[in-house]
């Protein structure tokens, strides 16, 4: 009897030990419910000020100097210089034309003043002659009729001369004013042209409108990626570079359509730079686009753009760096993944 009880107790201990051993696989299944998603991405600035070639110009502009990429600039620093030779030549010619026209205006003003003085003297002279004729007529009232008639005629002639002098003075003043107004208008036009050319010359030097780091713009062409450099000719309003705010950074990456529904704004991410893989940058998922990107030719898989904010920005972090983004996502079986993926597509 005692032996039977010992066997029963020993069996119970074996069963309990078996139950404790079976608890470990359950914990491993729960851990397996979370997997890490690894995606390639690119570091971008949260705030960027694009810099383009000037707008109000005809023809191509030659880049004579371009600030090196990666330079940290402050607002007002020179970042681009264009060749201003032809505008300086136009400006010099316009300045000469303006100076000549201003001399002509001054000459016309002098002539007009001289005409005004001469006509004023003529009017004064004829006015005096009229007064003398009137006085002579008064003195001749007791003379013979013939004498009085002569005095009357002299008086009338003096009045006619006075009216003529006044008329000539007004006509000359009008002619002088018209000629002077035309010359002054031409001088104002030349002044405006000179100011416009000077504005063009000033635009040949481009300065930064904000603090940040210089990043040269990459333009995709049939020949490959185009980066503008000193010596290149550009047209109007061509995007040349960006001034990026290095105090706020993001990382852009793409996710496969099967993983898109597992990502939500606010999820934690971890970013490692390909250049410095030993350092990790924490971040937070900001958005996942609802519309897929254009699929490559021959591909049926859809990719969605995602953006995450980065924290703990350090001096190593620069826009354009390639990075690896890691996100913990929920693991789902094929059936659940398929059903949710179909619902997302709808």
Q: Which word captures the global form? A: rod-shaped
- The percent range for strand residues is 25-35%
Mean pLDDT across every amino acid position: 80
Structural class category? alpha+beta
* Number of discrete domains: 3
Q: Report the count of strand segments.
A: 16
Strand order of the largest sheet: 1-12-15-14-13-16
What is the helix fraction of residues, given as a range? Answer: 40-55%
Please report the number of helical segments.
5
Question: Ranges with pLDDT <50 over ≥5 residues?
Answer: 1-31, 333-346
Q: Could you tell me how far the N terminus lies from the C terminus, measured between alpha carbons in angstroms?
A: 71 Å
Order of helices and strands: HEEEEEHHEEEEEEEHEEEEH
Biggest β-sheet: count, sense, barrel?
6 strands, antiparallel, barrel
Radius of gyration: 46 Å
What does it look like?
The protein folds into three domains: 116 residues, Elongation Factor Tu (Ef-tu), domain 3; 75 residues, OB fold (Dihydrolipoamide Acetyltransferase, E2P); 117 residues. The N terminus and C terminus are likely disordered. It contains five helices and 16 strands. Helix 2 runs antiparallel to helix 3. The protein is α+β, with helices and mostly antiparallel strands and 346 residues long. Helix content is 47%, strand content 27%. The strands form four sheets. The protein has a six-stranded antiparallel beta barrel with strand order 1-12-15-14-13-16. The protein has a four-stranded antiparallel β-sheet with strand order 2-11-7-4, with no helix packed on it.
């Amino acid at each position: 009897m005692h032996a039977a009880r010992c066997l029963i107790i020993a069996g119970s201990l074996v069963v309990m030990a078996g139950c404790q051993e079976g608890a470990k696989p359950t914990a491993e299944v729960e851990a397996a419910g979370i997997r890490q998603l690894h995606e390639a991405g690119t570091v971008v600035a949260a705030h960027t000020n694009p810099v383009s070639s000037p707008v109000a110009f005809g023809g191509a502009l030659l880049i004579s100097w371009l600030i090196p990429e990666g330079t940290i600039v402050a607002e007002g620093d020179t970042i681009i210089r264009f060749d201003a030779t032809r505008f300086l030549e136009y400006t010099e010619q316009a300045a000469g034309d303006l100076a000549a026209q201003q001399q002509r205006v001054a000459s016309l003003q002098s002539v007009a003043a001289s005409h005004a003085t001469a006509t004023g003297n003529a009017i004064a002279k004829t006015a005096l002659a009229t007064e003398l004729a009137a006085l002579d007529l008064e003195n001749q009232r007791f003379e013979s009729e013939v004498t009085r008639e002569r005095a009357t005629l002299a008086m009338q002639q003096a009045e006619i001369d006075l009216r003529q002098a006044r008329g000539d003075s007004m006509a000359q003043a009008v002619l002088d004013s018209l000629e002077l107004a035309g010359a002054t208008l031409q001088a104002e036009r030349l002044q405006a042209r000179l100011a416009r050319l000077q504005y063009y010359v000033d635009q040949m030097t481009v300065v930064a409108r904000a603090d940040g780091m210089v990043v040269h713009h990459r333009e995709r062409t049939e020949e490959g990626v185009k980066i503008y450099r000193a010596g290149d000719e550009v047209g109007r309003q061509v995007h040349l570079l960006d001034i990026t705010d290095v105090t706020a950074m993001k990382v852009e990456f793409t996710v496969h359509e099967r993983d898109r529904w597992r990502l939500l704004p606010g999820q934690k991410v971890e970013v490692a730079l390909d250049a410095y893989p030993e350092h990790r940058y924490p971040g937070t998922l900001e958005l996942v686009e609802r519309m897929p990107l254009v699929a490559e030719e021959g591909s049926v898989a859809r990719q969605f753009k995602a953006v995450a904010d980065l924290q703990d920005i350090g001096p190593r972090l620069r826009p354009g760096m390639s990075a690896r983004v890691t996100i913990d996502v929920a693991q789902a079986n094929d059936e659940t993944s398929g059903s949710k993926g179909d619902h997302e597509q709808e």
